[in-house]
Amino acid sequence: MKRKLLLALISATMFTGAYGGDWSTIKIGTEGAYPPWNGTNAAGELEGAEIDLAMDLCERMNATCILVAQDWDGIIPALQNGKYDAIIAGMSITSERMEVIDFSQGYATEPATFTTQSSSALASTGTSGPLNLDLASSAGELAKLKSLLTGAVVGVQGSTTHENFVRQELGDSVTIKTYDTQLNLELDLLAGRLNAALSDSGSMEEFMESNPGLSFFGPKLGGGQFGPGVGVGLRQSDTDLKAMFNKAIDEARADGTLSTHFIKWFGKDISM
After folding, report:
1. Positive or negative: CA dihedral 223, 228, 234, 240
2. Is 14 buried (19+), middle (13-18) or exposed (0-12) by CB count in 10 A?
3. CA torsion angle for 242, 58, 37, 82 (degrees, to 10)?
4. CA-to-CA distance for 9 and 246, rounded, in angstroms?
5. In tens digits, what is the pLDDT along the chain, a chain of 272 residues?
6. Which of 17, 103, 165, 173 is 20 to 30 A from 6, comparing alpha carbons?
7. What b/e readout covers 50-89, taking b as 16+ CB neighbours within 10 angstroms?
8. What domains can be seen in the chain, in order of their start residue?
9. Cα 124 from chain centroid?
10. Are 242 and 104 in contact (CB under 8 A)?
């Protein structure tokens, strides 16, 4: 099948109309700053598991796609304003977001995990297994986590499910610092300006590979504020485009390609 994907880095300040209703051309917004989900290489080119996934889905939909780099804190408003037609950017499907946009079916899931400096007392507490926040039984573990982090300075990327969790579950016991990008969060943690950071485990693992001195601790968080998984963000009115993405994701899952994209970039299969 002929590849029909046009990669374009477009300034976040430049407005261009979406192609609503004519899906032979589809604009896709992505952050380009959240590796290995989506990142930008030294040549200024978008790369990552979701960039490969976008290329794959566009081929299956027989569409020419334009990738648009957009800062995270404006990624939903830009979709609503017609700058692009879809978001593929490690965005979790949550009830809060579904009040203003829609989503395709989920295509991946990765737990949220706390990270700290390896020399800290928090690191010595070690890691524990998955904690499903949708279960009533999680309350006891959350109480232990809150006690452990009382008085700590905790960093999160702003406007994320990680920020929502920290504010809702730990907000009255910790000092919260928010960051515009995952990288700035990681750098402050490495420099010791934070006691802990909460983020997607895959993105932090990517940073830790080349920046030793950090360790995970606590449970692997899922469900609750983090939702059931990551999907394509869409305008609520674009039901036909949603059906196209769902069909393409089904096909990629059935032939194994969906798994292949994530194994390549994460070193493991986080597809769903």
Report:
1. negative
2. exposed
3. -60
4. 26
5. 333 344 444 333 333 334 446 899 999 999 999 999 999 999 999 999 999 999 999 999 999 999 999 999 999 999 999 999 999 999 999 999 999 999 999 999 999 999 999 999 999 999 999 999 999 999 999 999 999 999 999 999 999 999 999 999 998 999 999 999 999 999 999 999 999 999 999 999 999 999 999 999 999 999 999 999 999 999 999 999 999 999 999 999 999 999 999 999 999 999 99
6. 103
7. bbbbbbbbbbbbebbbbbbbbebeebbebbeeebbbbbbb
8. 5-109+229-266 (3.40.190.10), 112-226 (3.40.190.10)
9. 28
10. yes
Give per-residue burial for 157-179: e unless 16+ CB within 10 Å, then b: bebbbbbbbbeebbeeebebbbb
Rounded CA gap, 171 and 164, in Å?
9
Measured N-to-C along each axis, helices 239-254 and 257-266 cross at an angle, to the nearest 10 degrees, of 80
Residue 218 structure tokens: 């606590």
Q: In which residue are the tokens 């579950």 written?
A: 169
